[in-house]
TrEMBL record, chains A, B:
The keyword RNA-binding does not apply. It comes from Clostridium frigidicarnis. It catalyses: GMP + ATP = GDP + ADP. This is Guanylate kinase. It holds the Pfam family Guanylate_kin. The gene is gmk. It is an enzyme of class 2 (transferase).
């Protein structure tokens, strides 16, 4: 039997594009494992430590940085965010597919470290829709709202660094597209060397002359 | 409005792997356009000129070669096979997705000319199964059967030149995988520049300050 390495699926895009909802649906429907990020930001209502994020103090976070315990970390809007290294690598080695919801800065750094990850950029159907979503979330001051809009415009340029772009017009259609991307990625020749070997093994054991 | 270029989907693999049945199913279910090859081989029972192949005499075929009318052509088991150039290019330019069922030699030549095609290698579930399928087809002499088996073993090495490999264990599951590959390919960043532009356009027209 062959050990198959898991796939790291990176769901990224401007804030408010709907990354979180999409990841939640994917996790409900598929045997995927969530990489839980660490952050120094204040939990939003209902967010649980160890489930949504590992909520750390700035000091705790910086200690982990010194211990080289992050695949990437970054400061965004004054808060630190990081992707713990050990957990993700272990799951991938065990053949588990890992999903990582992460902002654009973070995704680009992950790409430097995990080049065979699948990098998916979630696009809002329009910027008007993006604005409505951020407002609806209700967690933004007018100032942070403006900061996010402005950066979203710049951020969309980074889509060219990703493998795939999925427009989040409805959660269902976005999730379906990502499901197709996962099936396709598992058919990529560079990911399925074992199956091809199995197929050739079959020939060796065949009696061609009977 | 943007004109979107169609995708060339190349379905290839060893003979007997089930390329033909898979293509037929895909064409039934999706708005895909078949590229019809030309050949000098004798039609099998039920095969129709202009539908399965353009059946040409050797002289007719070589005339077309001289007129540079093939994307690729090759001699396989003593017969000439070729992919007519004009039809395929026109369909792609019109935004139509074109499906091309072709042997491995041919596919590799197409790849030299159409680098953004999607190259899918159909693998038999096992070589025993491949043998049964070729025997069932009933169109082979014992000698040609042996030739095919031997070359199939060599041919599987070429899978590394392809983008995807799909094991044809059942037609349904193989077709589903190819459907996912098509959805995924349409989400590839390098194929969807227009949609991203649309999304940015949305921002320009938004009133951010209201």
């Amino acid at each position: 039997m062959f050990t198959k390495k898991g796939i790291l699926i990176v769901i990224s895009g401007p804030s408010g594009a709907g990354k979180g909802t999409i990841c939640k649906e994917l996790l409900k429907k598929h045997n995927l494992h969530l990489s839980i990020s660490a952050t120094t930001r204040t939990p939003r209502e209902g967010e649980v430590h160890g489930e949504n994020y590992f909520f750390l103090s700035r000091e705790e976070f910086l200690n982990k940085v010194e211990e080289n315990d992050f695949i990437e970390y970054a400061e965004v809007y004054g808060n630190l965010y990081g992707t713990p290294k050990s957990g993700v690598q272990q799951m991938l080695d065990d053949g588990k597919d890992v999903i990582l919801e992460i902002d654009i800065q973070g995704a680009l750094k992950v790409k430097d470290n995990v080049s065979d990850g699948v990098f998916i950029f979630i696009l809002p159907p329009s910027m008007e829709e993006l604005k409505q979503r951020i407002i609806k979330r209700g967690s933004e001051t007018p100032e942070s709202l403006m900061t996010r809009f402005k950066s979203a415009y710049q951020e969309i340029n980074y889509v060219s660094k990703y493998n795939y772009a999925v427009v989040n017009d409805t959660v269902e259609s976005a999730v379906e597209k990502i499901e197709s991307i996962l099936v396709a990625e598992k058919c990529r020749v560079d990911r399925m060397k074992e199956k091809i070997l199995d197929s050739k093994e079959g020939l060796i054991h065949d009696q061609l002359y009977d």
